[in-house]
Known about the structure:
It is built from 22 helices and 28 strands. By secondary structure, the chain is an alpha/beta fold. It folds into three domains: 9-260, Rossmann fold (3-Layer(aba) Sandwich); 278-466, ANL, N-terminal domain (Rossmann fold, 3-Layer(aba) Sandwich), CATH 3.40.50.12780; 476-652, GMP Synthetase, Chain A, domain 3. β17 and β18 (418-422) form a beta hairpin. α2 (39-55) packs across α6 (155-168), α4 packs across α5 and α12 packs across α14. The termini are far apart.
Amino acid sequence: MSDKTLNTFPRLLASHAKLLPDHVAMREKQLGIWQSWTWSQAAKEVQALAGGLAALGLKRGEKLAIIGDNRPRLYWGMTAAQTLGAIPVPLYQDSIADEMAYILDNADVKIALVEDQEQVDKLLEIRDRCPQIEHIIFDDPRGLRHYDQPFLHNFEDIQRQGQEFNQQNVDYLNKETRQSDGDEISIILYTSGTTGNPKGVVLTNDNVIITARNGIIREGLTAYEEVLAYLPMAWVGDNLFSYAQSLVVGFCVSCPESASTVTTDLREIGPTYYFAPPRVYENILTQVMIRMEDAGKIKRSMFHYFMEHARKTGVKILNGDKVSAKDSLIYKLGGFLVYGPLKDALGLGRIKLAYTAGEAIGPEIFEFYRSLGINIKQLYGQTECMVFLCVQPDGEVFADTVGTPAIDVEIKIDDNGEILYRSPGVFHSYYKNPEATASTKTPDGWVLTGDAGFFDEHNGHLKIIDRAKDVGKLNDGTMFAPKYIENKLKFFSFIKEAVLFGNERDHSCAFINIDLEAVGNWAERRNLAYSGYIDLAGQDEVYTLIKECVEKVNKDLSQDGRLGGSQMHRFLILHKELDADDGELTRTRKVRRNFVEERYQDLIHALYSDMNECHVKTQVVFEDGHTGILEADVKISDAEHFSVDHLTAVSEV
């Protein structure tokens, strides 16, 4: 088959089963042992499942919900649905039942394929609100022995039914596969819903497959890559990296045993192709530095010596620039003694290409990984374009840009600074939401990203400032870009989350969430006792630590003529971590800014007064679903702000 005929996922699967029958397609760790499936075996699994879904009545255009951790059977469920011309709809596995109810109803889901008892229980809880769901199929039967509802089915039973169906209807699946084409709907992925209900992004086979193929071409990926699938299946990035690109080029995808074993499984697999949001890279680096603080003097000294050398020469070597013979020799020695063992311990020893996206990553963190020889690059994208908009080219990797347009992508900046794009990945529509579709996509195919940015005049790379709707002004006219400043705060390992306020105010102030693990370790090394997050967050020593971070950001902002006036005057450390279950974050950990502002009006009022403390009561949702009240006296601290560098201001004007 030519590439033009490989325009659906069932056709891609059939091609790999024929051309790479013994090549490992997927792995899953079960009870500490890796189980493997070749492409020919995966094709048989999908065929049996597709027959079972057909026997249950799933037809072209109908929806199959996918809910659970990364599991081969759930990925096969997507291909099985697409074999029938049906449409998979992945949901975030940690969503509460009410969140699931909205999507299941909005998407008109007919059948749900779920991982385990936890997900079955959620669906049973909301089934009266989603009567269109006719069947629920579960992968893991543990705990479900006494569930006797007739619409509940064991995965293996459905596959057995599928084998019987396929024997009795010999050409049925082939006929359905032949009917599908590139312009048909491939999948519906729901947005995180930062400002309202999630929207269903409808993507065609062409949207997904052409974009995946272009990414493969740009980076030179092959069928011999190794990927660890550990990010939510409902997230567009996992659909691209762990599903679409694997099926396009034929590389192996491995599923960890559980969320708690990801680090161990990463080391065992040693992926060559890897994606992680900045927070994951930050957490890994935090763990490394914590362990080094506890190491012996000789080991610690050797680590710091070679890391300092890596910072000077590692990035140059990675970019192919010339370094002296002495520096090259020392770097090779460091690779033997420090860099190599460290990368192997992190599971990153075989990385050919690593991506990060979603938030800005701290320059120091970015430099740390690249200095080790890990080719980590930033990319920029959205669900509405199947991820790829901009990618950093090899040898042109900068911490403050997101790269140049990907293959076949056009980008322009509107008069108000908003980024617009056209590409083969531009989504078909928002499901059952023509108004939102029309307000996002122009008649000639340009998509409004909602992000503000500009192209750097020196290197032609795109820079992202903030969400366009969040860019405002202080009362003195200074530009206020909260996300830009929040990211600067989160570059510090002690700060997990930050929310800035300042639009149409005299100055900016901040809510801070501390990182419990990083600050807790810092406190323990200083013999500071604490009983939990609330206690630690309220300690004077912790406020001093965070104040230093805030003031470093202020000093950095003072060098920026556009944003220097938006330095933070006051801040507080929230008494609780922002939580998706409490509605403060989306399932992709994006702050729901309007919700937070409305929920904590008293704290915001206190920030903009002369109060030094504010008593607060907050309703929270616990892991078991029950609600409770947290009470605390939240301290408020002033922060030093600095004179703006007027020379910078003049030069930038």
